[in-house]
Structures are given as C-alpha cells and as structure tokens.
Amino acid sequence: MFDLLTRYLPKADGYLAYWQLFVGVTALFNTVQNFTTLKLTRRIYNVQPQSVTALQARTFAVWTLTSAVVRAYAAYHIHDKAVYDMAMFTYLIAFGHFSSEWFIFRTATPSAGLLAPVIVSTSSLIWMFNQYEFYVKA
Predict the structure, then answer these.
(1) Is the dihedral of CA 66, 138, 19, 126 positive or negative?
(2) For 77-128, how does the pLDDT look when each residue is reduced to its tens digit (9 = 90+)?
(3) 49 secondary structure, DSSP code
(4) Can you tell me the distance from the alpha carbon of 60 to that of 95, in angstroms, rounded to the nearest whole number?
(5) What is the Cα–Cα distance from 127 to 98, expressed in whole angstroms?
(6) Domain boundaries, the chain
(7) C-alpha atoms less than 13 angstroms from C-alpha of 35 in its C-beta half-sphere
(8) Which member of 3, 66, 77, 125 lies 3.0 to 4.6 Å from 83 by CB, making a disulfide possible if both were Cys?
(9) What is the pLDDT of residues 37-56, one digit of tens each?
(10) Contacts (Cβ under 8 Å, ≥6 apart) of 44
C-alpha cells in the first residue's frame, strides 16, 4: 500500500515538492467548501461576514483552484524555473490579498481563518526564495 502511494509522490530532493503538493491538495478542500457553503469564508472576512456572497465565494473558489493546480504542478516540476516562479507568485498574490483585507480594507481581523493563509503564504515564499538556487539550476 505504501509503495503504491509513494509511486505518485513527487521525485525531488528536499521537502519543498512535498509541501507544494500538500498545499495544493489542501486548497482543493478550500475550493469545495467555497462552492458549497459560505461558513468558512465568512470566518476570514469576519468584520462584515454578511457581505460575503455566494458569487464572491465561487469566485474565490476558482482562484483557489487555480492556485492549487499551479502548486501541485510545481510539486512535480520543481526544477522548472517558469513553474517555480509561477508557484511563488501564487503565494505572493495570496499574501497580498489577505494582508490587504486585514490592513487596508479592514474586512478581516486576526483569526484562524485569516492567519492560516498568511502564515502558509509567508513561510512558503521565504522557503522558496531561500531554496531557489537549490531547485532552479539556471
């Protein structure tokens, strides 16, 4: 059983490829929940949760799905500069979005719903930036 599972895991040195796959798969859960309910999305934008509409949640779901695909693809193509850079940009965009909702638009306050994506995007960006030369052999 374990051999069957490892056959589908990324083949790369280090743990960054596994992290990319984990974050990509986790984003699938977020995509599904955004298509099916407003409950968890309203935890992020908690200042005026009633302003989270079904349309906004579905748009957020598609954005999250796009990020999931890029990150999962990066897991299997971690040495490809273009793919690596695109994955980095998904984290930068996520960080920018959630930070602006917190600090500029004031639609979110520090909570688990907000801090989780901020921490994941920040730590992923730092990790990817620090390991750039290791994975991307220009």
Answers:
(1) negative
(2) 999 999 999 999 999 999 999 999 999 999 999 999 999 999 999 999 999 9
(3) G
(4) 14
(5) 19
(6) 14-135
(7) 11
(8) 77
(9) 999 999 999 999 999 999 99
(10) 98, 101, 108, 111, 113, 114, 117
